[in-house]
Amino acid sequence: MRVLHTSDWHLGRAFHRVSLLDAQAAFIDHLVSVVREERVDAVVVAGDVYDRAVPPLSAVELYDDALHRLADLDVPVVMISGNHDSARRLGVGAGLIGKAGIHLRTSPAACATPVVLADEHGDIAFYGLPYLEPALVKDEFKVDKPAHETVLAAAMDRVRADLSVRAAGTRSVVLAHAFVTGGEPSDSERDITVGGVQSVPAGVFDGVDYVALGHLHGCQTLTERVRYSGSPLAYSFSEQHHRKSMWLIDLGPRGELSAERIDCPVPRPLARIEGKLDELLADPDLAGVTEHWVEATLTDPVRPDEPMAQLAERFPHVLSLVFAPERQPGEPQVSYAQRLKDRSDEQIAEDFVAHVRGAGPDDAEQTVLRGAFDAVRVDETLREVAR
Length: 387
What we know:
Blueprint: E1 2-6, E2 14-15, E3 18-19, H1 21-37, E4 42-46, H2 57-72, E5 77-80, H3 87-90, H4 94-98, E6 102-105, E7 115-119, E8 122-129, H5 134-141, H6 148-164, E9 171-177, E10 179-180, E11 199-200, E12 210-214, E13 220-223, E14 226-228, E15 245-251, E16 257-263, E17 270-275, H7 277-282, E18 293-298, H8 307-314, E19 318-323, H9 336-340, H10 345-357, H11 363-386
């Protein structure tokens, strides 16, 4: 069976206030063409179909168009909800839509109820594990500790139990939306840390033939059978070196697997440039990025007048401006943004405690801080779902 693995469409998302709707529509055109030309047997979409729980109407219309076009090709689609999606909204009408070959898996309780497809060699069971927010699904999976690893492990135990009673030789594909250890994140994924931990080991998924992952935006191979497709478009400048693509997976009669990357259209390349303003405006080596989307980091010791306007004369698609003044050796970096760079909310809070008290939080206090941040994040998730 030939499976096309994609994820993280984030329909409705903008790039530094620039609409990506046309670029997302071009991706859907490309997806449909690949399904047709490569004779794909099934499409899997591993979550974050939308960028937010209540997407704009234009994003819903594009999603509707994509489903109709895929259904017209008579190619089954298996799709799960991600942490950006509202599972309840995405799953509306799932039973009816399933009759058209579009199989939505948004309920944690149904994670061990597969979509069973078949080829000339037998059945392939597709299990959809939507994003599992530990605090919200711990009762469903009867786990004592609400953590990503425990709830995913419990979900996979159900998958393996269902698979064990199916006909011998049944192959299996699991869709999951999670941060798996070994994956490389970018700046555009939403933090899903719980209890100070956001990743789960790849071994959680042992026992199945292929794991189609979503959440991280870079295309990655964690093991031969565990892969991220990544997002089809760049959603932050940290993704400037990403090769955006989908995985074309061929699953053989005994679970043999081969994988090919299918590149996605690039609406406009990204570039990060750095230096003093006058240097950036004159540097001949930057001639090749004048039509890119640009993030400029200025190192001038004093902020220049109207830097964005000056940069736009040479780089008409400059979108982001960062100030990082050069300092003398030994001079401390005083930029607030630089002090916070690469630090989590919890680490920032711990630094604040150390600043006002003279000593950082002890183990018990760290547990309280983690619990507070987890509670806020769960509350935000519930409020998004309720909107």
